[in-house]
Amino acid sequence: MSTPALLHIEGLSVAMPGPRGRVPVVDGVSLDLPEGRSLGVVGESGSGKTTTLRAILGLLPPGGRATAGRVEFDGEDLLRAGERRLRQVRGGQIGVIWQDPQAALDPVMRVGDQIAEAVHAHALSNWSVSRRRAKELMRLVELPDVDRTFRTFPHQLSGGQRQRVVIASAIAGNPRLLLADEPTTALDVTVQDQVLSLIGRLRADLHVALLLVSHDLAVVGEACDDVAVMYAGRVIERGPAASVFSAPRHYYTVGLLAAAPQVDRPGVRPSSIPGTPAVGVVRRGCAFAPRCPAASEDCVAATPQLGGEGAHQVACHHPLRIAAPAVRTRARGND
Q1: Which spans in 159-296 are helix H?
Q2: Helix 159-170 vs helix 127-140: angle between axes, to the nearest 10 degrees?
Q3: Coil, strand, or helix at residue 218?
Q4: 86 CB burial (10 A radius; 0-12, 13-18, 19+)
Q5: What is the distance between the alpha carbons of residues 165 and 97, in angstroms, rounded to a whole number?
Q6: Which of 113, 112, 106 is nearest to 138 (CA)?
Q7: Rounded distance, CA 242 to CA 332, Å?
Q8: Range 307-310, long-range pairs (CB < 8 A, 24+ positions)
Q9: Distance of alpha carbon 32 from alpha carbon 12, whole angstroms
Q10: Residue 25 — φ and ψ, nearest 5°?
Q11: What is the spatial distance between Cα 328 and Cα 265, in angstroms, rounded to a whole number?
Q12: pTM of the model as a whole
């Protein structure tokens, strides 16, 4: 029996305002994330990853709106929830780790008070209790000299320390799900590993599910049980991370893996994907067809649908049936 999904996204479509009306940017995205597991969503810039994440909590940019589908969290469709209910869910049941910790923090408020404010908002405790809990959270995310750091302002901390403050705020409401939007992009490689290790430990200790959006395949391979690959607003491949990374079935996934630096394989140079990424949702056919070496007339005429046996699914008229040359990532089970 499969584990029921804590987060169930079905047929999600999102449109943004354009010069001639609304423009579809996400089309028919369906994803499942069981409690306690982690799902990585990868793809080039403009593929719809962050828009999908923001749609979950109704945080789309002005003029953007979900036009179809369901986003169920523990059985409740958040697309039909009112703003008052969404405010309860945001930070309470679902925590968010944003890409730029500098932008996510108030520059004129001490970081300890920012964490305490998050505790106070969701636990409804008095300020004395909230500050004590904030210090506990700061120790949990391994911030140094908590009493001193509590009184500092964001600009006085390093990028990695600021991201730890954001993570502490994200777990202040004891959420069941964490949404992370490119949480290591602004950090150097050494600090990236530290932050990923921290997120992984918190996931295990707190039994929190994780939806991680990233363009970095190595990050997703290290942090996630499952992966969904997006291109031009659609999911074109999904499955267990080890399976997708070791035996990709979509030519776009193969291209992403080949473009990733292989630091443990001297002499193997990354190769780029030819052509230009599609902008927005392509109405008919496969959006990747102009860049695909296996494209045919049916790829242009008909939109491929996700399918396949088992958990590893692909949306392609001519999927790879023999494992592509192995490209190493840090995906679990792919050593």
Answers
A1: 159-170, 189-206, 217-223, 241-246, 251-259
A2: 130
A3: helix
A4: middle
A5: 10
A6: 112
A7: 6
A8: 308/249, 310/239
A9: 12
A10: -120, -20
A11: 9
A12: 0.90
- Residue tagged 């699914």 (tokens): 313
The 10s digit of each residue's pLDDT in 68-114 is 999 999 999 999 999 999 999 998 999 999 988 889 999 999 999 99
DSSP 79-126: GG--HHHHHHHBTTTEEEE-S-HHHHS-TTS-HHHHHHHHHHHHH---
DSSP per residue, 113-139:
HHHHHHHHHHH---HHHHHHHHHHHHH
Listed in sequence order, the residues at least 6 apart from 315 whose beta carbon sits closer than 8 Å to its beta carbon are 234, 235, 236, 237, 250, 286, 304, 305, 306, 307
Q: How far is CA 289 from the centre of its chain?
A: 25
What tokens does 123 get?
A: 């636990």
Cα separation values, 167 from 32, 121, 246, Å? 23, 16, 31
Q: Which residues of 167-185 are buried (b: 16+ CB within 10 A; e: fewer)?
A: bbbbbbbebbbbbbbbbbe
Amino acid at 309: E
Helix (H), strand (E) at residue 329: none
- CA terminus-to-terminus distance, the chain: 28
Token couple for 255: 């291209």
**Which residues have CB under 8 Å from 124's CB, separation 6+?**
none
Q: What is the pLDDT of residues 24-75, one digit of tens each?
A: 999 999 999 999 999 999 999 889 999 999 999 999 999 999 999 999 999 9
